[in-house]
Amino acid sequence: MQITQEFRVCGAKCFKGDVEGKNYDSTTLFVEMDLSERGGNSVGKNTVEMKFGTSEEFAKMKHLPFPLQAELTLNLTTKGYEVEGFKAKSAAPAQPK
Asked: I need a labelling partner for 26 at 20 to 30 A (CA). Which of 11, 14, 75, 91 fits?
């Protein structure tokens, strides 16, 4: 299933290199989500790591003023969220203290 929705993206990182003979090249987004309040022992927000392509994606966004609002296109799979598209909208609104 694919959805497109606006999220607060708190940051991003990339990794490109070799670890124990295996080559890696990825970008990870840190996307703000509400904590589940079902159990009654958590409130507020946290970030969820979402993979988004290779380090080339990071190079396109590293100049942006994080945190920011972005439109993300996500595939929802049995392995979690897969980011297929990223479109920066604006600087994220300040969080209340």
From this structure: 91
CA 74 – CA 70 distance, rounded (Å): 12
> Sign of torsion, CA 29 4 32 68?
positive
pTM of the prediction?
A: 0.86
pLDDT digits (tens, 9 = 90+) for 30-56: 999 999 888 888 999 999 999 999 999
Three-state secondary-structure class, residue 68? strand
Close Cβ partners of 3 (under 8 Å, ≥ 6 residues apart):
73, 74, 76
Tokens found for residue 3: 């959805």
